[in-house]
Known about the structure:
Layout: H1 10-28, E1 40-44, H2 53-60, E2 67-73, H3 76-85, E3 93-99, E4 115-120, H4 129-141, E5 143-153, H5 156-168, E6 172-178, E7 184-185, E8 188-192, E9 196-201
Parallel strand pairs: 1-2, 1-4, 2-3, 4-5
Antiparallel strand pairs: 5-9, 6-9, 7-8
Helix pairs in contact: 1-2
The structure holds S-adenosylmethionine.
S-adenosylmethionine is lined by residues 46-48, 51, 72-75, 78, 101-103, 121-122, 124, 131.
Amino acid sequence: MSSSFANPHTSNDLKRLRAFLAETLQKSGNPAPTAAGKPVQLLNLACGRADETAVLADVFGHGPEGIHLTGLDIRDREISEAKERWKKLHGQAAADFLVQDASKLSDLRELSDNFDVAFMRHQNFWNGDTTWSKIYDQALHRLNRDGMLVITSYFDREHQLALDAIQGLGAQLVCSERNADSRILPDAPQKSVDRHIAIFKKP
Ligand SMILES: C[S@@+](CC[C@H](N)C(=O)[O-])C[C@H]1O[C@@H](n2cnc3c(N)ncnc32)[C@H](O)[C@@H]1O
């Protein structure tokens, strides 16, 4: 597993994400799923370089069978980086990465519809509400009955837009937490890394 990132802030951002995710899951009363007899299946939507892969493997991969992560993004350069970085993960964790438009998951016949977790870090709801509503809708359809959708957001306003949209699709908001420790971005004082996390369940 590689731990060196080009951005000097990334390692600490990921440490904070790990702590905030674990704490939010605990507060939500919905611990990380442990799928009986098979690895936990996690779908990482619009994952970009998927810097958070090892964090997700640690936080969600507690089950005896470990975890399998599937990362998708529309940009192939980012997916190539993710493939290179996460060729090998610790313990019983493995990851695949695909170049894919996440608003068109129905085109991807081979993708499971039995995911335990769908995850979306730094969603971009403000940047195309129709596309992002489709992405959330398709993500919810790929979850199993007990599955959870977890999102993080950079801004308060876009987080609220996403909360409204996802609940509008019929998902139940389990909890939404503001990260008091998130790193403010110097070029955008209202924006901070993993500023919010929200967890949803299927109704
Ligand atoms: C703000 S970035 C977040 C990337 C990553 N999750 C992170 O936190 O570093 C938003 C990502 O959405 C991806 N994206 C935008 N539209 C998409 C689509 N229709 N399908 C898949 N990925 C998409 C972009 O390529 C970009 O990587």
